[in-house]
């Protein structure tokens, strides 16, 4: 029986899929004492499931039988991909599994910010019913939404935005998908053009080797009435520049679910900035998201064991020398 080590908890449905397939799933236990227990845990492991903890190269070296690192989520930035490939270890992820739920988080944060939901709740609780006359909440209808990225989450966000009566523009390093074009999404020429066009800019990209970020200059393009939403990656935003823009009124607000350093300190620039609504990376943490991602990570791990992971395989070059592969497999 193959052993599967689950470094961070996943939905029970995913554990059940692994067990029913003949694996021996074992949850690693508390993260604060994980390092000391890893050598014993990894010595027989063929599959590792990880979330934001990633998987270090030194841990790979402790696992001579490891064939698959399965990422519960999309990001592989916390995994030494080159080292995994050199060792013949397949790395798979669950891109798109939680996309509908992350899209919901985009609008939960955005509506909370624009409609001043936290302030309205606080006003009512302190007896200030007249807050409704001075709040001046903003709307989505009739405004332009800019999407940096055109992947799974962005496509869901575009559909919801159009249902709200928004005009949607998008830019990515890849051509605009036909699915989005059919919805009426307009393709921006570049990121600067997108920032200048958008009333609300929502980020759905991943950190790039060229260091492209939303910095002070692009925030200025967004303008004093602009709003930034980030449910993607903290590294996409210059947080100091964003905090300064919020303090100075260079943009109107920000809705942030991901940070450069997680968890952020209580003194972090965005934690103390005005006109924000913040969340502790909840986009993929809803019950539906966890269930969908747990099931998917189990399935792609099993597919990888059979060398059939397809698009979920993040290092396809490994297949030529993948661990466990025979000349006929």
TrEMBL record:
Domain of life: Bacteria
Listed GO MF terms: NAD binding; oxidoreductase activity, acting on the CH-OH group of donors, NAD or NADP as acceptor
Keyword annotations: NAD, Oxidoreductase
InterPro entries membership: D-2-hydroxyacid_DH, D-isomer_2_OHA_DH_cat_dom, D-isomer_DH_NAD-bd, NAD(P)-bd_dom_sf
Residue intervals of the D-isomer specific 2-hydroxyacid dehydrogenase catalytic domain: 5-305
Domain D-isomer specific 2-hydroxyacid dehydrogenase NAD-binding, residue spans: 107-283
Positions of transmembrane segments: none
Keyword match Cell wall biogenesis/degradation: no
Keyword field contains Oxidoreductase: yes
Family the UniProt entry places it in: Belongs to the D-isomer specific 2-hydroxyacid dehydrogenase family.
This protein's name: D-3-phosphoglycerate dehydrogenase
Organism: Tropicimonas isoalkanivorans
């Amino acid at each position: 029986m193959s052993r599967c080590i689950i470094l961070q908890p996943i939905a029970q449905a995913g554990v059940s899929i692994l067990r029913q397939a003949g694996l021996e799933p074992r949850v690693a236990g508390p993260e604060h004492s994980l390092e000391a227990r890893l050598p014993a845990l990894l010595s027989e492991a063929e599959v590792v499931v990880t979330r934001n903890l990633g998987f270090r190269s030194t841990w790979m070296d402790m696992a001579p039988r490891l064939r698959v690192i399965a990422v519960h989520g999309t990001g592989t930035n916390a995994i030494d991909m080159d080292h995994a490939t050199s060792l013949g270890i397949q790395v798979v992820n669950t891109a798109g599994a939680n996309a509908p739920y992350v899209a919901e988080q985009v609008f939960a944060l955005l509506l909370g910010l624009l409609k001043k939901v936290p302030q309205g709740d606080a006003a009512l609780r302190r007896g200030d019913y007249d807050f409704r006359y001075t709040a001046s909440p903003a709307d989505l209808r009739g405004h332009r939404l800019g999407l940096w990225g055109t992947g799974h989450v962005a496509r869901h966000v575009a559909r919801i935005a159009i249902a709200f009566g928004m005009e949607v523009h998008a830019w990515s390093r890849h051509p605009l998908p036909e699915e989005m074009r059919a919805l009426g999404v307009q393709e921006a020429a570049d990121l600067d053009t997108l920032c200048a066009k958008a009333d609300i800019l929502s980020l759905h990209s991943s950190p790039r080797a060229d260091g492209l970020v939303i910095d002070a200059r692009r925030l200025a393009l967004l303008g004093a009435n602009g709003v930034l939403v980030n449910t993607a990656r903290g590294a996409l935003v210059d947080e100091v520049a964003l905090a300064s823009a919020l303090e100075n009124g260079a943009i109107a607000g920000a809705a942030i679910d991901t940070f450069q350093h997680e968890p952020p300190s209580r003194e972090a620039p965005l934690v103390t900035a005005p006109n924000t609504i913040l969340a502790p990376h909840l986009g993929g943490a809803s019950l539906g998201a966890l269930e969908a991602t747990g099931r998917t990570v189990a399935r792609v791990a099993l597919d990888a064991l059979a060398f059939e992971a397809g698009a979920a395989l993040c290092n396809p070059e490994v297949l030529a020398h993948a661990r466990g592969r025979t000349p006929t497999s």
